[in-house]
Amino acid sequence: MIRALGVPLLRQIGLICAIVIAVFLLIRVVPGDVVDVMATEGDMTAAEVAELRAELGLDRPVPEQLALWLTRMAQGDLGMSLRFERPVAQMIEYAIPTTLALAAKSLAIGLLLGVGIASAATIWPRGPAAWLVDFVNLWSIAIPTFCVGLAAILVFAIGLGWMKVLGNGFVPAIVIGIDIAGQIVKPLHEELKEASAAPYVRAAKARGESPARIVLAHLLPNAAPVAIALSGLILAGLIGGTLTMEVLFGLPGLGTLALQAIQGRDYPVIQAAILLFAVAIILVNAATDLLQRLLDPRLRR
Amino acid sequence: MTLVSLENLTVAFDDKRVVDGVGLSIAKGQTLGLVGESGSGKSMTACAIAGLLPAAAQGRGRMRFDGDVLDVANETAWTKLRGRRIGFVFQDPFASFDPLMSVGAQIARASFLAPDLAMRRAIALLDECGLPDPAGAARAYPHQLSGGQLQRAGIAAAIAAEPDLLIADEPTTALDVSVQAQVLRVLKAAQARHGMAMLFISHDLAVVGEIADRVAVMRDGRIVETGPVAQVLRAPAHEYTRLLIASRPAGKLPGKDALAQGYAMEAKGIDFAYPARRRGTTPAKALDGVSLKIPRGACLGLVGESGSGKSTLGRIAIGLLRPAAGTIRVCGLDPMDRGRIAERARKAQMVFQDAAGSLNPRLTIEASLTEPFALHRIGTRSEWRERAASLLGEVGLAREHLARYPHELSGGQRQRVAIARALALDPEFLVCDEPVTALDMTIQAQILALLRKVRDRRGVSMLFIGHDIGAIETLADRIAVMKDGRVIEEGTAAQVLNHPLAAYTRSLLDAVPRFKAIEAPATTARETIDA
Known about the structure:
The structure holds two protein chains of two kinds.
Chain A: H1 2-29, H2 34-41, H3 46-56, H4 62-74, H5 88-123, H6 128-142, H7 145-159, H8 163-166, H9 170-195, H10 199-206, H11 211-241, H12 243-249, H13 254-263, H14 267-295
Chain B: E1 2-13, E2 16-27, E3 31-35, H1 42-50, E4 57-65, E5 68-71, E6 86-89, H2 103-111, H3 115-128, H4 134-139, H5 147-158, E7 165-169, H6 177-194, E8 197-202, H7 205-211, E9 214-219, E10 222-228, H8 229-234, H9 239-246, H10 256-260, E11 263-273, E12 285-295, E13 299-303, H11 310-317, E14 325-330, H12 341-347, E15 348-351, H13 355-358, H14 365-375, H15 381-394, H16 411-423, E16 429-433, H17 441-458, E17 461-466, H18 469-473, E18 478-483, E19 486-492, H19 493-498, H20 503-510, H21 515-524
Helix pairs in contact in B: 2-3, 2-5, 3-5, 5-6, 14-15, 15-16, 16-17, 17-21
């Protein structure tokens, strides 16, 4: 199994390098650098600007900057923020827990809702859950999360004043969670319906298992690969995708950090954030693969 | 004392009635055998008794079960019976277990005991059903057990809650002959030990005769005859039962068509000519007024030297060539009827001489074997692999051959795969066009033995084409000899071989000095697999 994952892993490390280098070059194509941004904020003479640029090493040729950055990164040094004069690693370390907590909460809510509604709709095909499947699915397709997020702020924070009660991270997690549920619920429900036509389902019924037991013990595990694959994609997206909610709710996570860094042309921070997103996505993909193999005894060796 | 009785059961799909007014009763501890061809409604009757009718079926009628009266139309009434009081053993053991849950856990769930007790009970049941390593089998997942082992586990699951009635729906049909007997013994023993009544469904009267006390014969959704098993088998009252008994040696029950007409293939006055190579020359006549009949379940050997037209006839029979004149019916169909090609393909299949050429070199064996299922929309995708594996088992190959490509197999193995694929749709009629000619002598004998086994077990009718009378003699009931596009002699195998009428047949027989020598390995090499 390690070998099966090992080869793709090597390929993915290559992919990470390519992404990081591409980003390194691309952000330097965008007009204006950190010194320009600072110059517009405070009064700086042309001489001061040139001096600062030299001090930060931004006057050197791009390939030289890239080589320097790669060498440092290989030594585990992500560099210093150009704007805040703090180590990038420290800033990221500070932002990670917020984003991870939001992503984890959102995914948990999304899975709970999605799996729950899809299961209920399979057990009671004529019940309200079957209607909810389409409702939640349409909700997530039709309404962007930032709209729901804004509405949630208006209702819960300003209107009802519940924000303090629920805590800062809970409302955005619900907003993202419903969005995730909508993405998962429809395919999972279809998969469950398809699985319920399998002959072993009739056999389980013949042995006296109730519809609920059949769905929970037999159909869900058999339909799990779909949910796991989707969750993997969603989680990978979440690591950078909590940005809107973080900004909207003022959470100091990775998304906020990356946005600020891009606005301020804080190259080392952008580079480090992108590197982190890439690694995270690849790790999530590897984890989904592994989980799917572990869940199916026929694929286990 | 009557345990279960069914009154006036009707099952319909849309307006098509598959069960039409069936009534039957089973006493406590007694076994009722329900016999009939496929499509006779016997499985639907069993499903109705277990409350397992498919959603699309409309069932009507009443069932009494141990004093309670149930309405067939109201399935919820069965919730308390299924598993607890009525156990069900399915035909395909692989289809009756969840592939993701261990066999022991599934049996344990069926026992309705507390979790710790349930697992011990599952292991005890597996032991009782004769699995050599019950604890290991309990931990195993379905794909890790053989068909025979899994079917015994299926019986264990069905009796886990000590039901009063056990329904076994063709429980041995999907298994090898050697395993069938074992499974029957297990069923009988379990029934005796737990004092269960049993409804045993089969198409095989002989098997029913072994296990049942009473037997009911079903045809077209009705019960045509019922009575004690000895009486029905010895003195059948209904014409159809007599036909079932008469056709027993062929293995398979004759279908409806067999009653209407007794021939798998019926050719009358077939003419055929291949187009002339060059303009102006007259086309060579390959067939000239050929008339041949193959009774159902029989094998006709068609002999003749190359160019005599025998392969041409085979191709016409399968619809690959259109005769210039004459009529041909195969399994009651015109093979050239474009509208019914799919039906023809299900009923009549062909094994070619060149196995390598008849298999797509870019497809794995599994892909080749499952292709017919996809084309004919048979079963679900998940079942296909198991079906393919069981087909391979039937032709003496192992499951691991599924992943191979044709070039990775020997010639004999490739021909076995070709036979498996011809059998995939469970045909009634097989055209074998010199299937062993390209093979070594010993492998020839093995393939012939395999074809004989297939014939005996499935009761398929065959048109076996060959130029070697020795090869044909081991298989054919009747032999026809062809020369220059005409049938010059036809008769039972014994007649033609021992008292050949035509001089040409005698010369053919004389030309095969070693045909006795082939016969010997053919009978001893039955089960050996060529490496």
